[in-house]
Amino acid sequence: MSIRGMAALAAGCFLPLLAAAPALADEPSQGDTGVQTDTDVPAAQTVPDVMPDVIPAPAVEAVPEAVKPVRAVKGVKGARAGKIGVLRPGDRGEAVRQLQRRLHDGGFYFGQAHGTYDEQTRYAVWGFHKSRRMVPRGEVGPKTWAALKRSKGLRPLVPQGGADRVEISLTHQLLTIYRDYRPVLVTHVSTGAEVQYCEKGHCGNAVTPVGDFRVTRKAPGWTTSRLGSMFNSLYFVGGIAMHGSTEVPLRPASHGCVRMPLSTSVRVFNMVKEGEPVYVRGQI
Predict the structure, then answer these.
(1) pTM for the whole structure
(2) How confident is the model at residue 13 (pLDDT cuts 50, 70, 90)?
(3) 217-225/258-261 β-pairing
(4) Do residues 224 and 17 lie in contact, with contact meaning Cβ atoms separated by under 8 Å?
(5) What sign for the dihedral angle of Cα 177, 175, 36, 140?
(6) What is the pLDDT of residue 21?
């Protein structure tokens, strides 16, 4: 294993010690990265360089078994921007419901198509934007609507990685699950911040290791380690895991774990089995 990978073992989220999750303040504002923009977006905000994996234990949104395919969108109504049909967090209505269905069909969203642009919808929009190399923003404007109508396959990180596998891109902060060689789930994630830290008497490097791994252990529900709490953890190297979190910012911010939105983590935990390959590639 590389020096970078060895450092990650010392910086991971560690194995669970307790079963309860302490409370934490609301998620801070998010920073933005990417290449292509949508329309009329605000200036980027910043977040702390590294945030602990300490998260509260809220109720997890139910995951529907299926959502009917959405029809072609000829015009988007109900958005605050009127003619150009821009949707933003907090919007409600049929346009948001259509957005959620399209994201669901693409494997980005696994909540209910309830027509409210909530946090889980925003995470799904971020994942979609990043998969298309667009700047991840909360706004959904003409470019996003056009991209949602076009089918475009993801380029695999490891083409010969096997029919069923998990791929994690540090470069684009994306996690993709493959089934029968096809991507079936794509989610925005936040990986190790790659900074040194000292918390509660423990110091290390916040690194998510690059390499070929396998899921070694699954821990359902909430678990707590010295560095914080995780939901539905899937350990793949030492104490480093893919897990659900209420804080999944737009920049690498964990101690080394791979944070996922809570609703998506339910689906990931149910899909991924022990022993399944996990490939981590790229750099932040």
Answers:
(1) 0.73
(2) low
(3) unpaired
(4) yes
(5) positive
(6) 33
